[in-house]
Amino acid sequence: MTVPLKQTRFRIGGMDCASCAAKIDTAVRRLDGVADVSVSVTSASMTVSHGGALPEGKVLRQVARLGYGIIKAEARIDGQASTVKAYDHADHGEPASKQAVASTHLHMGGEPGQAWWRSRRAVLTVAYAAALLAAYAIGYLFPAAERWVFLATLLVGLVPVARRALMAGLAGTPFSIETLMAIAATGAVMIGATEEATAVVVLFLIGELLEGVAAGRARASIQRLADLVPKTALVERAGGTSEVPAEDLSIGDVIVVRPGDRIPADGEIVEGSRYVDEAPVTGESTPKRRGVAETVFAGTISTDGVLKVRVTAAASDNTIARVVRLVEEAQEAKAPTERFIDRFSRYYTPAVLAVGALVALLPPLLADSDWNEWIYKGLAILLIGCPCALVISTPAAIAAGLATGARRGLLMKGGAVLEGFRGITAVAFDKTGTLTAGRPVVTDIVAYGRDERTVLALAAALEQGSGHPLATAVLDRAKADKAPVPPALAAKAISGKGVEGSVGGVAVFLGSGQAAGERANMNEAQRLAVDSLNGEGKTVSVLAADGVVAGLIAMRDEPRPDAAAGIAALKAEGIRAVMLTGDNRRTAEAIAASLGIEARAELLPQDKQRIVGELRREGLKVAKVGDGINDAPALAAANIGIAIGGGTDVALETADAAILHGRVMDVVRMVKLSRAVMANIGQNIGVALGLKAVFLITTIAGITGLWPAILADTGATVLVTANAMRLLRWRG
Length: 732
Ligand code: ADP
Ligand code: MG
Fold this sequence. Notes:
The protein is α+β, with helices and mostly antiparallel strands. It has 25 helices and 27 strands. Helix content is 50%, strand content 19%.
């Protein structure tokens, strides 16, 4: 029997190194009832999966004991007040502040807006550095007391570190960075290098502080997106307007947006036609004209006049909020490289301890070398062995990559997806709504035996319940021609084929020529008519009534403006592009020829899925791009499923990635972003390991001592995070 898992989300303060995340992971995983844990340093959050009764108090205590601040974040989709319990542990983690409560309430996540230099850790570090300077002064004035003054200073810095090492050890992580530090500093005191031990601890603390600052920047970059949405809105109620908090807006409210204002909610224009600057959300620099019934996004700017907008999504559910939430969740989902590094560092730290011990013991024992000298070198090796730079190398780059992508409308649900894009060798596109704009227009109506208006009326009757883009086209035309739309009985959509039902006692079908052929006989003249329309790149749906062909409805859906360029860009990267469509072969080929893509036509949804499977069996790594309308199985069958074009909500939830701005070019951008991120990770690992190798050699050779050793680790960590942050400026 399997119990469905529940998930509880927490926000964590004071995590600034991936090894912190690993420590928390291990500690929480050990608790009874916990099935899975995922912790993200960059989004400062943890999700615990459990089989029902989660010992929440225990989770809070366990994490607080390790020295981190933790609060529970709850209630996400429903937009209710969220934070239930605050747990403030007075050690070193930034305590959970009221601001955290506010930001989780908005579901936009992020850290409390506390300045890094005011955190407990910063205060401790500064106090400790000041004490160190004082110790130097006192030592200079009273040389006899020097050793004791340094020792006292050291204790101030070392005790909290040792305490964290102990707590992590008790919670299942005996080999932590703190353990290495504590052993190295204690050892140094024992061989008389007290002064140096003190300096080492201060460098360690400064390094940790800088890492925290760097990790906070990735978080801030995502948070800035959320900040684009104004906090208040002018809402029209009972004749007047009043200012209300944006999060209190409800669906259906009509808001007034003044020129130059940011739009406070996702909505539909009810009055006014203005240039809207969508750059903040779409990255598109030229403002676009948006008129009545068109969609506008929260965070975009009405540039030239007043707009009235009807709210279509609550604050917690607008596009930006959903993007922020997806990115945060994505950051918790680890990439394979990240998992590998995690596993690696589990063995790495104990191995470093062993090597340090061997270096300290072997030369004096075997070659009768000087004990103090080799113990000193052994301790330096412990410091070099700190894996901080290595463990942060991958998650920092991935977090920055996910954040950058999100800001450019490229959403990826996790490190694994981001990493996977690099290896894509084939992209299969859906046609309608993917390569085309998905706004088909009826161009021709041909009637057989009835008049055109009746053909349109019958077709429109069937389409009323359908969500297919073609249905919208037919209904729009019926409205424009003022054709009556009678009700249809037992209407149903046949995926990839069309729609059928009963209208006024007549059994009617509207759909592809192929599917219509199974239901009615088409004569030669009709076949020719369809053929010639198809040849013009038009999609033809055939109307059959009581087993007789009653008419043809031809529709044309223009390709997206950048479709041809987007496909060419993929080919330039050596990636194969294929169009999969349920449409007629001639139409498909006419469109494919204009786009320069190979086409597979007349496919049912299961055929699309099968073809994706075949491509994969050929050894290709396949991405499938679609709008999710009847192509969800193929999206799922691909290595990476990509939803395009604001997409239906279903597509966004089920696909691995989403292209928000409906640009075909964005597919290749995702591949390039993935390559940039993976190259960045390569550089990071190179720097982290390279610096260690150099200092390992100089230490053994006796050229460098304790403090350069720790500087090598913190220095590498800072370099690695700074390098990863370069990705935040990626343009593609
Ligand atoms: P695509 O692969 O381009 O997304 P679909 O698989 O959705 O196309 O549909 C295949 C064909 O079936 C369409 O070209 C059209 O002729 C017909 N069809 C499907 N659904 C409808 C509908 N709701 N109204 C009219 N025709 C439809
Ligand atoms: Mg489709």
